[in-house]
Amino acid sequence: MTTRRDLAGLLGAGAVAATALTLASKEASAQAATTNTLERILSSKKLRMGAVAAGQPWTFKDRATGKWGGQFVDIGTALAADMDVQLEIVETTWGNAVLDIQSDKIDIMFGMNLTPKRALVVDYTSTVYDSALVVIARPGFEPKTWAELNDPKIKISVDVGSAHDHVAARLCPKAQIVRFKSLEEATLALRSGRVDAQSIFWMGGVRAVKRDPGLGKVVVPQPMFGSTSNAIVRRETDKTWRDFASAWITYSRGLGLIREAVVNSLAQVDLTMDDIPPGVTF
């Protein structure tokens, strides 16, 4: 027979056990919250990198084999190897990359030009390489300066929210900036004669004209505007992952690894050093 004293003891033990479980759960949650991205990558042996399937020469996915390639895949593979972890590629888009970083779907995304709006919500690594902004000008239109493009009669296509968009709007406030959802749509607008030029970084511009000479000509308006191509990571109180990635990038630039990856990726799309516009460096 269970007495009141026995019942009180059982209830007390239950309360103690429940309290212990609650404390253990809180402790586990706190421990998980304090685990930074670098610790998780090293413990899971997995580095999740975002990549765009149709982003060659930066990243691309072979539809037939499912294999990924491109300069940032080569760079990400080298980074993972130096960390002794496996590279896991997660498909994303340029437009969704920031959200995928914030929602913990990916750990790093290369090829993100620095913009103030992005810098408000994610952290940038050190510079992967320098990138000059150019325009693809329609046939018969060859502006030599940004001042020539800064004209109310001139229409410039951009992919909305991109660095192409931010820079064109800043340098050509008087021009008509025509915004599209994707880089491809912005290029199609130029091809169909709906705009006079497309704002784009040199790698994308040179490749587009190489594939379709009818688009026009790659022009480097003066003064030459130079931006940077960086990687983005999740914003955390502990900056260990950002700092490590930045240190690795700086080290790899010094070794020539970054430049080699870029040159190899250009060769894969039939571009050579001779195709690079005069004055453009990376």
Considering the chains and any ligands shown, give keywords for the structure.
282 residues, alpha+beta, D-Maltodextrin-Binding Protein, domain 2, 2 domains, 8-stranded mixed β-sheet, 3-stranded antiparallel β-sheet, 11 helices, 13 strands, globular, disordered N terminus
State the gist of this model.
The protein has 282 residues and is of the alpha+beta class. Helices cover 43% and strands 22% of the residues.
- General form: globular
Indicate the CATH architecture of the largest domain. Answer: 3-Layer(aba) Sandwich
Overall average residue pLDDT: 89
CATH topology name of the largest domain? D-Maltodextrin-Binding Protein, domain 2
CA-atom Rg in angstroms: 25 Å
Instruction: State which percent range the strand residues make up.
Output: 15-25%
Poorly predicted ranges = 1-32
Main pleated-sheet profile: 8 strands, mixed
Tell me the count of domains: 2
| Tally of DSSP helical segments | 11
Describe the SSE topology:
Layout: H1 4-34, H2 37-44, E1 46-52, E2 54-55, E3 59-61, E4 68-69, H3 71-83, E5 86-92, H4 97-102, E6 109-113, H5 116-119, E7 123-124, E8 129-137, H6 146-149, E9 155-159, H7 163-171, E10 176-180, H8 183-191, E11 197-201, H9 202-211, E12 217-219, E13 226-233, H10 240-255, H11 257-268
Parallel strand pairs: 1-5, 9-10, 9-11
Antiparallel strand pairs: 2-3, 3-4, 6-13, 7-13, 8-11, 8-12, 8-13
Helix pairs in contact: 3-11
What does this protein structure show overall?
The protein is α+β, with helices and mostly antiparallel strands and 282 residues long. The protein has two domains: 37-129 and 228-275, D-Maltodextrin-Binding Protein, domain 2 (3-Layer(aba) Sandwich); 132-226, D-Maltodextrin-Binding Protein, domain 2. 43% of the residues lie in helices and 22% in strands. The chain has eleven helices and 13 strands. The chain has helices at residues 4-34, 37-44, 71-83, 97-102, 116-119, 146-149, 163-171, 183-191, 202-211, 240-255, 257-268, and strands at residues 46-52, 54-55, 59-61, 68-69, 86-92, 109-113, 123-124, 129-137, 155-159, 176-180, 197-201, 217-219, 226-233. The strands form three sheets. Strands 6, 7, 8, 9, 10, 11, 12 and 13 form an eight-stranded mixed beta sheet that branches. It has a three-stranded antiparallel beta sheet with strand order 2-3-4, with helices on one face. Strand 2 (54-55) and strand 3 (59-61) form a beta hairpin. Helix 3 (71-83) packs antiparallel against helix 11 (257-268). The longest helix is centred in the N-terminal third of the chain and has 31 residues, at 4-34. It is globular. It starts with a helix and ends in a 14-residue tail after the last helix. 35% of the residues are buried.
